[in-house]
Design a protein that fits this description.
The chain contains twelve helices and twelve strands. α6 links the parallel β6 and β7. It is an alpha/beta fold. The longest helix is centred in the C-terminal third of the chain and has 22 residues. It is globular and about 65 Å long. It folds into two domains: 178 residues, Bordetella uptake gene, domain 1 (D-Maltodextrin-Binding Protein, domain 2); 118 residues, D-Maltodextrin-Binding Protein, domain 2, CATH 3.40.190.
């Protein structure tokens, strides 16, 4: 979306929470006038960090100022979020975070120290990646979703699934799956997706929802068997694996995602400029190729489109959390 069409969209749309509408005749401030910081709520090397650095490296070549990724891990994203919400909405502080930071935390933690709707300006959905429902290929004698559901129902109390932690996106995806299929494997949380995948491969648990990039090589190598992907369409990395809908589970599109946000009350005209620079960097052919290769689908939608999606995600996961009686650790 170009600058003119974005401004037209914003003008025709009710004001989004977190965006300040400029008074008529007000000129947007100069931007950028100093280096731009992209705050990342996790350590270097993870999905948020990869996306942030992809944007920062390319954006710094086009806006006339350095763009620097700054890792601020801690408290499931709260440390970084609190830093960002206190910053000025002048376009010099951006925030790249995950579904957990921008949606699940709100659904899971009633006393969260930041409000991702009221205290942050939406810039864009950066990337999505599907989850893959996988089973241990040696220990689980099923190949299709109906076979898996039947097997789980026949082995109540004897099956378990791994996740990257309580309240993680893979945990809530499995809880949604359990609610939709009437199954109840036991939850075994780990400290991170790599550990959850390792024990699944070892056969210590039987199944898991995993990010595509974490397990694609193990699926292709035959140690894990993919039952379905949770995206709307089949994934180019695993083209023979059906979607959940194709496998028999309708309305089960669940993606992990990374988005770009900024401090609340950013003026609309400045938002249009920042959005344009971010999306231009994100959609550079080199970035698309690099991100696609590790399982990400590049999005780069409008602030209004991302905010609508974000609000729907918060409500979706709030309902899952309530039904499953999940409590944050």
């Amino acid at each position: 979306m170009n600058r003119r069409s974005l401004l037209a969209t914003l003008a025709a749309t009710p004001l989004l929470p977190g965006i300040a509408r400029a008074q008529g005749g007000t000129q947007p401030p100069e931007w950028p006038t100093r280096p731009v910081t992209v705050v990342v709520p996790f350590v270097a090397g993870g999905p948020s960090d990869i996306v942030a650095r992809s944007i920062a490296n390319r954006m710094g070549q086009t806006i006339g100022q350095p763009v620097v990724a700054e890792n601020r891990p801690g408290a499931n994203g709260e440390v970084a979020a609190r830093q960002v919400v206190r910053a000025a909405p002048d376009g010099h502080t951006l925030f790249v975070g995950s579904i957990g930071v921008f949606a699940i935390n709100t659904a899971l933690r009633p006393n969260l120290g930041y409000d991702p709707i009221r205290e942050l300006t939406p810039i864009t959905m950066a990337v999505t990646t599907p989850n893959v429902l996988v089973v241990n290929a040696e220990r689980v004698p099923v190949r299709t979703l109906p076979e898996l559901v039947a097997w789980l129902r026949a082995n109540v109390g004897r099956t378990s699934y791994s996740t990257s932690g309580v309240g993680s996106s893979d945990h809530l995806t499995m809880e949604l799956f359990k609610q939709r299929t009437g199954t109840d494997p036991v939850h075994v949380p780990y400290q991170g997706g790599a550990a959850a995948a390792t024990d699944l491969i070892a056969g210590n648990v039987q199944l898991s929802f995993q990010n595509l990039g974490t397990v694609a090589a193990h699926i292709q190598g035959g140690r894990l068997r993919a039952i379905c992907v949770t995206s709307e369409a089949r994934n180019r990395i695993l083209p023979d694996v059906p979607t959940a809908a194709e496998a028999g589970l309708s309305d089960f599109v669940v993606t992990s995602w990374q988005a770009v946000m900024a401090p609340a009350a950013m003026p609309e005209a400045l938002l249009a400029r920042v959005h344009g620079a971010v999306v231009e960097a994100l959609k550079h052919p080199e970035n698309i190729q690099r991100l696609n290769a590790i399982g990400f689908d590049v999005v780069g939608n409008s602030p209004a489109e991302y905010r609508s999606f974000q609000q729907a995600e918060i409500e979706r996961w709030r309902q899952v959390v309530r039904v499953a009686s999940i409590r944050a650790e």
